[in-house]
Amino acid sequence: MESALNFYRVMAYIVGVMLLVLCAAMVVKYGFDSGTMVAVVGPIHGFLYMVYLVAAINLGLIKARWSVGYLLLVLIAGTIPFLSFILERNVTERVRRRIATAS
């Protein structure tokens, strides 16, 4: 479960940063009428978000057996700025507690 947690944590940070970059790109697009940055960052974030979904499903559904509601919250976290960082901490604490009690 620890390796699935580490992969999830890395993806949560990457997706969180890319989402912030995408938000900045949206400001540039609509504030300065230049859509180039969105055209580049958008698909990259989209692909990385899909990898994030796989990491979260692997950890939450297969390894840690979270409730459907919590899993959906974690999955949606990659689409709301800053939420992936907050939930990453929560997920890490939750999984580490579970690992500690299983030992």
In short:
The protein is an all-alpha fold and 103 residues long. The chain contains four helices and no strands. It is elongated, with a radius of gyration of 15 Å.
List keywords for this structure.
DUF3817_TM, mainly alpha, cell membrane, membrane, 103 residues, transmembrane helix, DUF3817 domain-containing protein, elongated
* pLDDT averaged residue by residue: 94
What is the rounded Rg? 15 Å
Q: Which structural class matches the secondary elements? A: mainly alpha
How widely separated are the two ends?
12 Å
Order of helices and strands: HHHH
How much helix, percentage-wise, in residues? over 70%
> Which percent range describes the beta-strand content?
under 5%
Q: Figure out the total of helices.
A: 4
Number of strands: 0
Largest sheet: none
The number of domains is: 1
Q: State the low-pLDDT regions, or none.
A: none
**Per the principal axes of the C-alpha atoms, what is the gross shape?**
elongated
Write a structural description:
It is a multi-pass membrane protein. The chain crosses the membrane at residues 6-28, 40-62, 68-87. It is found in: Cell membrane. This protein has 103 residues and is mostly helical. The protein has one domain. Helices cover 85% and strands 0% of the residues. The protein is built from four helices and no strands. It has helices spanning 2-32, 36-63, 68-76, 83-102. Helix 2 (36-63) packs antiparallel against helix 3. The protein is elongated, with a radius of gyration of 15 Å. The model has no long low-confidence stretch (mean pLDDT 94).
